[in-house]
# Entry
Amino acid sequence: MTITTNKPEVIKPLVTKEDWIMRIVLVLSTLWLLWGVVLPLCPIFLKSFQDKEGNWIGLQNYLDYLSNPSLVASFFNSFYVAIASTLVSVFLAFVFAYALTRTAIPGKKIFNILGMLPLYIPPLAHAIGLIYLFGRQGIITRAGWDIGLYGATGIIIGESLYCFPQALVILITALSLTDARLYEAAEVLRTPKWRTFLTVTLPSVKYGLISAVFVCFILAFTDFGVPKVVGGSFNVLATDIYKQVIGQQNFPMGATISVFLLIPAVLAFIVDRIIQRRQTSLVSSKAVPLQPKPNRLLDSLMFVFCVTIVLAAIIILATIILASLIKIWPYDFYKLKFSLSNFDFSRVAGGGYSAYQNSIVVSLFTAILGTILVFIGAYLVEKGKNLRLLRLINYFLSTMPLALPGLVLGLAYLFFFVVDNNLGINNGNLGMVIPNPFGNNWVIPNPFGNKSFPLIILCNIVHFYTVCFLTANTALKQLDPEFESVSASLSVPFYQTFWRVTLPMCLPAILSIGIYYFVNAMVTVSAIIFLRPDDANLAAIAIVNMDDAGDIGAAAAMSTLLVLTSLGVRFLYWLFTQNIEKRSQAWLKR
Amino acid sequence: MTNSSDSTRINRNKQKQGNLSRQTPAYTVNEADTKPYVQIENVSKSFGKFVALRDIYLDVYPGEFLCLLGPSGCGKTTLLRIIAGLEPQTTGKISLGGKDVSRLSASQRDFGIVFQSYALFPNLTASQNIAYGLQNAKVDSEKIKNRVQELLELVGLEGIGHKYPAQMSGGQQQRVALARALALSPGLLLLDEPLSALDAQVRVKLRTEITKIQKSLGITTIMVTHDQTEALAMADRIVVMDKGYIAQVGSPHSVYQRPNTPFVANFIGVMNFLKGVTTANNQVRCGNINLEIIDQDLETNTPVRIAIRPENVSLVTSETNLPNVIRATIESVEFLGSNYHLSLSPDGYAQEMMTIELSNHQVKDLDISYGSTLQLQLPPDKIQVFPEI
# Structure
């Protein structure tokens, strides 16, 4: 063979119609993420360098902030309560998860369900429940045990309740993935139990534990609902932003504090990502699942522990529901006099049932539109061919919202989308001008301009995007990557396989994404409190309004409605999936 | 098993081989002047800096069953995916049925494919899986029904068309995957390790059936496998690959009997290697053993490795005037059911062990305990010589 010295031509595959469809959709998906996640953040930073009139003043806002002792105090307060809540909730969740996965206690299924209960209760409602128990008129306080709820104590209890189920989900997953053979090997080598725990158990759940810590930290650090209700005079960053923006309409200072809230959250997110990247699977596909052996003492202790935790969750929920049925707390409670008068919202602030209806509509739209956007995005990232860089960017943008505190996101949306001359934030078109070298610049019209429900829906979709995206991503990863190859060999276009195979196979994941969106859109306050239209309200914001106005009975009633709706939807989902499972059992794995 | 001298040897050899396969196909079932159905010309593939395939030339003839055989990471699957269009080659040309398809996507090429994982759509029944491509081709439903029935019969699965993949055994699933790949009557069938996920017994059964179906349809077929027995049993022609090169192309017989590199010799079947130097045109000295070989075109004092298959080593009684009789001490005995494998260390050559194969019958009258000695004969015409580089 004569070896040709000139380099052979590099083959570029022809781009087919299908490729174009895929590319265009991927570009659109990335653009919308850019527009929904990244661009709105720009004005936050911009505003923090401006005065109220919009003049550039450099670092003046930051200097003002740092020279204001009460504001600086909230920064450290935020850290203090976040770290304390993280330690409490992760510790409790770890023991709880350990009991469910590694001991032989009875009733694991019930414990699992009840342990997740706080997930369906808005943090705000937790705080209200706490007030009825430990507040000034709380039944426990009146029984003689005053824990001094208002302030750090209340916030830490409330945030711990809020973070517990989140940590629990992560830790149960981490503790379930194990290899029984490791424990058998340790036992055969006559390793004492405590050493097995330190050398086998802990290393195997290290990444789950780290992840749980960071997730809880971000949640507790940025949450607004709990400190708003039980914080009293104990200020944190989130409540400061709220006060500056809603109370004093001081947008530059709101933006400045947002930066202080954003940076630790983003740092925590990045550190977690870096650590998680080092994770390699310790559990091979050949792993033997661990069957916990009964241990009388350990099992009894764990059982008592689980009962205590679950009781706490139930008591809080029961208190909220009870309180909504009692007119004058706690006197009517002692007399067991129940009434539905709290559910008559006509004489209290917040918009009553119309707010509740609005919430349902907004949540439905969030769930439907969000699920569609998330699933298409995740599909293109996971199953797309070529355009690797764009898919990476899309993936990165999809995971970013997890690091964004709701309040910051809401404020960003206010600055970016809402045109309001009275507020001096009329730069609603920022970042939407595309330079055109051949003439007039293209201006992409801002579809919002007003505080409106569509804007809130968009904000919700972005706010909860990451968890949904990762759920879809995991589901798609479990599908055989050769499905697409087989379709190509049969000349079946990818979108047909998407419709006939991918979608039906991912239906459970898609439904759970929808539920996640719905429940979160129902209970969220932080992101949308700045975006609510002046003439309409949402149920979760109404709770804040009622609490502000001192109508705590009505707030409890509205919380009850929200919790029952979330639980109801969850129950419907369960019924529905039971049904699907029965129908599709034929093609589910043996 | 390959040492550095092996790989250099292969590197040099592959060019010769690539050339050889392009000009004089070893496959002769079809007439020599038949045009190849698949033509691969100078195909290379790199992933960043890693070169997965280097200058591949290969022709596949109509109706031929070709096996791409090699260890994992040798590039065989990449080559199959390039032929399918599932992966673009970096450089080079692919033709299918005389048409240049180098730049076409998989859906524009005419082939059917079966994967190791079956890749059956779990939410569709066997019939629906088989009909999947037909429906898209706008065939009317009556015809689809008949075609599906025909294919189910072809793969021997009449009456289970209504079952979902999860309700079928691995072997059944792989048959459905085969039927699905054949549904559109493609010109080329690609099999990517189709039997690797199956139990040993099912594997043997299915490999006969696949060959039978392939022969009855006369469909040009390329199969990727890492299992040499599978390749030897099924293929008309085997392409042995190593590290992105084609090491040898030939019929199963020629690849087994006349491997042209130590790598091929070692990869296919069991081979004994002895290191030595040539002392004459037809003489090699390995340690203190002098062996007669068939005339080689090698200079005296060339370092070589000689190779002989276990079944070609014969046992001889003490009085004989056959050439190449050596004594060897038994080091270990493996009973394999129908025969024995004995490991021996040849007297006067301490470097390597030799394996020989003995039938139960032969062993009966022998003392094959550890440490006893046997007389072996290495027939000169069965010895292969590989010069060391």
Q: What stands out?
A: Residues 1-31 of chain B have pLDDT under 50 and may be disordered. Residues 156 and 324 of chain B are 53 Å apart (CA to CA). The interface with chain A takes residues 15, 18-19, 42, 44, 84-86, 88-92, 102-108, 111-113, 115, 117, 119, 121-124, 132-133, 136-137, 164-167, 180-181, 183-184, 186, 190 of chain B (CB under 8 Å). The two ends of chain B are 17 Å apart (CA to CA).
